[in-house]
Amino acid sequence: MNKKNIFAEINFLNKTAVVTGGGGILGEAMVAALLDLGANVAILDLNYESALAVVNKNNDLVGNALPVETDVLKTESLNNARELIHRQFGFVDFLVNAAGGNHPDATTSDEKPFAEIPEEAIRFVTDLNLLGTIQSCQVFGLDMQEQKAGVIVNISSMNALRPLTRIPAYSAAKAGVSNFTQWLAVHMAMTYSPEIRVNAIAPGFFITDQNKFLLMDEESGELSARGQRIIGHTPANRFGEPGDLVGTLVWLLSPLSNFVTGVILPVDGGFSAYSGV
Q1: Alpha-carbon distances, residue 129 vs 3, 168, 180, 231 (angstroms)
Q2: What distance in Å separates the CA atoms of residue 113 and residue 111, rounded to the nearest whole number?
């Protein structure tokens, strides 16, 4: 590939992307990047108003956006979304599984030991992160099987590589996402087409609505002791910002990464490389 062709490889005109959890903080940044590169983007979110707000913020970009109220834990809801996307844009080329998160009740503390975490909280976290990812891949992977091409990018976590204290369900669920990503990459390539690629991004520490209560003091806005320890173990000396994920996402979706499948890429400011000394 010569230099003058590199930027042409990341033109997503006439491509259709699905972003689950597209109304969230990280999903919104991904949606904006895809629209900016010309893709048609279906923004799937359980909260329709959140998805619509993302559309309204980005209606001046090149691509076309479609908000779709979707529950990734219900196959029927995903199938309905797929039918709507087909009518609006056609077959799906890219799937980005950004739906996920933790739950306060699935987090240990001095007041709530591990043995007392309720079953429903564990089930909520594992279902949202792992089952939601698997089912979205099942439904939208059908388009890729038929076209013999496509790219899936799952969102794993640094917790999948290095499980953190206090969040056992989330760490376990994201480890499952990483394992499933590798399994699906092999399955899609060997069963349907080598032109179907599946990878995952493992973000480091980004402040979101789900983890803010762990990382920051609600009253003062200052970093909690946990937040300070994280920054102390992050060579970049800051939390990630949503835009920090965009370059990796675009590269994984584009032909520039055509020989990359089955990998989990950390975007963590060096956290996973630092031994603590």
Answers
A1: 39, 13, 11, 25
A2: 6
What tokens appear for 178 in the block? 């990483």
The residues that are catalytic are 170
Task: Label residue 156 by pLDDT band (50, 70, 90).
Answer: very high
For residue 35, give the nearest of 61, 13, 55 by alpha carbon: 61
**What is the maximal distance between C-alpha atoms in the chain?**
60
Instruction: Give the model's confidence band at 210: pLDDT under 50 very low, under 70 low, under 90 confident, else very high.
Output: low
Is the predicted pLDDT of residue 74 greater than 70, yes or no?
yes
3-state SS, residue 128: helix
Q: Which residue has the tokens 């949503």?
A: 242
101 Rama class: left (phi>0) / alpha (psi -120 to 50) / beta: left
Q: How far apart are CA 215 and CA 149, in angstroms?
A: 40
Residues whose CB falls within 8 Å of the CB of residue 247, separated by 6 or more in sequence, listed in order: none
Dihedral sign for Cα 127, 261, 175, 277, please. Answer: negative
Contact between residue 266 and residue 19 where contact means Cβ atoms under 8 Å apart: no
The torsion defined by the Cα of 105, 110, 113 and 118, in degrees rounded to 10, comes to: -20
How far, in Å, CA of 73 to CA of 215, rounded?
28
Within its chain, how far is the Cα of 17 from the centroid? Answer: 13
Question: What's the half-sphere exposure (Cβ side, CA atoms, 13 Å) at 213?
Answer: 13
